[in-house]
Write a structure and sequence with these properties.
heterodimer; A: alpha+beta; five-stranded mixed sheet; four-stranded mixed sheet; 23% strand
Chain lengths: 319, 121
Amino acid sequence: MALSQDITAVASYQAYVQDFGEDLITRAFYMPKTLNYATTHEGVKGKKTLTRLKAATGKAVAWSSGFSAASNAVEFSPRTLEVAQIKRDLSFIPQEFESSYLGKMRPKGQNPGQFLPFEADVLNTILKGHTEEYAASLWSAVKAVTVTPGTTPMNQCFHGFLKLIADAITATTITPVATPGGAVTNTNAVALLETMWNGLGAAYKEMEVQIFMSWSSFQKYNQDYRERYGKYTRLNENGEVKMDFSQNATLVPLAEMGSSNRIVMTPGTNLNVGFDDFADDKLFSMEQNKRVIDWWMDWDMGVQIAQFDEGAMVVNDLA
Amino acid sequence: MTEANKIPEQEAAKAADNKVLEAMIEAQANELNELRAALKDLSSEVSSKSATSSAALPGTDPEPKKIPVCPEFTLGAKKYKFNVPTFSLNGLDILVAEDVVADKKLLEKVVTEYPGLVTAK
């Protein structure tokens, strides 16, 4: 069984007279901001079929006394939200810390041996790192051709939003807007978003729309706007950057989109995320196995986009 | 009439009844076969009709869908391939890459102004 602790770097420091800080230093982590906007579905075990209802236009006709029902006035079509089963296993031998300076953080005595130095901090940091990886998977995951239980990484267990969009472009379900110059830059970002806005359905222009992008694209939009108009972007009451011409469209920079150049304009609720239980991936189960402490968590997750057509989503052509 | 005379008379009547019954059975069997044949015709007609109607789902294009293509083209001495089957330059009009390859002016515009749409080969 592989151990989850690597104490190589702290193992040789105990022979010196020196002070050791009692706090851990860890880097900052980001949270899945997408979930603030997306529609979440709990209790999904396997697949959940979301049904799309589409009402046809042009079915109302001039009055006559006869009755003639309109054909094909509504259409129902399924969208399948499928979740993948994922796990995280960790193993620690707390007594091994005795051979490092961190051994001082353990209480007196060797039995029982379950006291892991900084246990709460370690757990907290693992959870934050997990959340970050989880958040990135929502967008960047690409399902492997063969998912091997116990081996395939989380971001290869299901298709994330970016892959679903790429597939929809390939299938001509959605038509991307070409990015001038072939890259989002600090001289074309404003023009690109304004062109994309043309493609958004008229009804969506009247509701809350999010424009999801990487932090890099967000910065370029702001730089372009500042240079182009000699002023800063407009902010709404929540401090979010509001798009010109719109009433409720805001730019949402997402750390979880990583370095993607894709810009996605859609109501956030069009993005669907499935879980079995929302708390599944926030709780570790723990068990002491002789001298080893095992931590594990199992959870289901998957994403789907409810609607691509009828101007519900506009994207640019870059991946 | 003696008992001896009665028996052959009864047998003759029975034989006549049997003949009538056989004729009736044969007629019913023929009728059944005709019905079976008619049912067969009807079922093949129904199944062919349901296959047609299932292909035409409400709201979908009844014509067979074109398989999306990302075509290759040559401009100058260079070969390129479209990365997307359809795209829009203004957010409104949809351009089909397969049609665009016939328009040299538009291809030049794509390659110089929107290089993200193509990959040089």
